[in-house]
C-alpha cells in the first residue's frame, strides 16, 4: 500500500509508542509535526479495505493528532499527514499483529553512521530475559540473550526487511529499516575556517607576483638610460723635452751672391 496523493513533504508523522509494529488492543497516538508551516493537518491512511480515509472515520481527532484505541489487525496500513494546501508528511507503515512477538525498529529513515538498536518484544514477557534471533531479508544476522541487537555505524547496505524470533514465543512480522546516505564529512565543516587561509595565501601570492613584476619592469626602464663619467686629460709635455726641441733647431742666414 502506498500514498495515492501527490504532495510536498514538509512535515513528519510521529507515533506513540515510537514503533511501527503493535499488538492488538494497544492504543496508538499519531501526531503531525511540521517545520513552521502552521498548516491544519489531517491524519489519513490506506488499508486493505479503504484508501485515503481521514482520522474521523477510524479514530478520534484532536487538532493535528489522531488517537486509536484498541488497535486491530485491520488497522494495518500506510499512515501519513496531509494539509489542505497540498502538503504532506512522510508515510509510515503500521503493522498490527495478533501474535506474541513484535520487532521495535526505527519508524523513520536513519542516517548513515548512526547506531540503530532493534528490540524483540513479547506480549507477556520482558525481552531482556529472552534470547532473540534477528533476521535481515530472511537471513540470520545476529542473536542476543537480551532480546536487543545494535547495529553500530549503520550503512546503506544495512537497509532491508528485519524480523526477530524468540524460541517458545514466536516470530515478529517484517519491518523495513530505511537508511539515508550520509553526507561527506567536509560538508559538515564550516566554510569560513577553510576559505580564510586559502584567501590569505592567494592574496600573499598575488602581492609577491605583483611586486616581482614591478621591480622587474623598473629594472628594465633603468637599463635603457646609461650614464658614464668621461675624464678628458690634456697631456702636458715636460719642460725638459721642450728645451731639447728648441736647442736642436738652427737658424742660418744666406746672403745672395756669396760663393
UniProtKB/TrEMBL annotation:
Domain of life: Eukaryota
Alphabetical list of PANTHER family matching this protein: FC RECEPTOR-LIKE PROTEIN 4, IMMUNOGLOBULIN FC RECEPTOR
PROSITE patterns: IG_LIKE
Xref: Pfam families: Ig_3 (PF13927)
Transmembrane segments: 194-214
Biological processes, Gene Ontology terms: cell surface receptor signaling pathway; immune response
SUPFAM superfamilies the record matches: Immunoglobulin
Keywords noted in UniProt: Disulfide bond, Membrane, Signal, Transmembrane, Transmembrane helix
Residues of the Ig-like domain: 99-178
GO-annotated molecular function: transmembrane signaling receptor activity
GO cellular component: external side of plasma membrane
InterPro entries hit by this protein: Ig-like_dom, Ig-like_dom_sf, Ig-like_fold, Ig_Fc_receptor, Ig_sub
Name assigned to this protein: Ig-like domain-containing protein
Protein source organism: Zoarces viviparus
Amino acid at each position: 500500500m502506498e500514498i495515492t496523493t501527490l504532495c510536498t513533504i514538509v512535515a513528519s508523522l510521529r507515533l506513540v509508542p515510537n514503533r511501527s509494529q503493535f499488538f492488538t488492543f494497544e492504543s496508538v497516538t499519531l501526531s503531525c509535526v511540521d517545520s513552521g508551516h502552521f498548516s491544519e493537518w489531517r491524519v489519513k491512511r490506506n488499508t486493505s479495505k479503504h484508501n485515503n480515509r481521514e482520522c474521523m472515520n477510524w479514530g478520534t481527532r484532536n487538532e493535528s493528532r489522531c488517537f486509536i484505541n484498541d488497535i486491530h489487525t485491520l488497522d494495518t496500513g500506510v499512515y501519513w499527514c496531509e494539509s489542505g494546501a497540498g502538503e504532506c508528511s512522510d508515510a509510515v507503515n503500521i503493522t498490527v499483529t495478533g501474535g506474541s512477538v513484535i520487532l521495535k525498529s526505527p519508524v523513520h529513515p536513519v542516517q548513515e553512521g548512526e547506531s540503530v538498536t532493534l528490540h524483540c518484544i513479547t506480549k507477556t514477557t520482558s525481552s531482556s530475559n529472552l534470547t532473540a534471533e534477528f533476521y535481515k531479508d530472511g537471513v540470520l544476522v545476529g542473536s542476543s540473550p537480551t532480546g536487543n541487537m545494535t547495529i553500530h555505524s549503520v550503512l546503506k547496505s544495512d537497509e532491508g526487511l528485519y524480523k526477530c524470533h524468540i524460541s517458545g514465543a514466536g516470530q515478529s512480522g517484517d519491518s523495513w529499516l530505511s537508511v539515508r546516505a550520509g553526507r561527506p564529512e567536509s560538508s559538515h565543516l564550516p566554510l569560513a575556517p577553510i576559505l580564510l587561509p586559502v584567501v590569505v595565501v592567494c592574496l600573499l601570492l598575488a602581492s609577491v607576483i605583483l611586486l616581482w613584476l614591478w621591480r622587474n619592469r623598473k629594472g628594465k626602464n633603468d637599463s635603457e638610460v646609461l650614464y658614464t663619467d668621461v675624464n678628458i686629460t690634456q697631456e702636458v709635455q715636460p719642460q725638459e723635452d721642450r728645451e731639447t726641441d728648441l736647442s736642436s733647431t738652427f737658424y742660418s742666414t744666406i746672403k745672395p751672391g756669396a760663393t
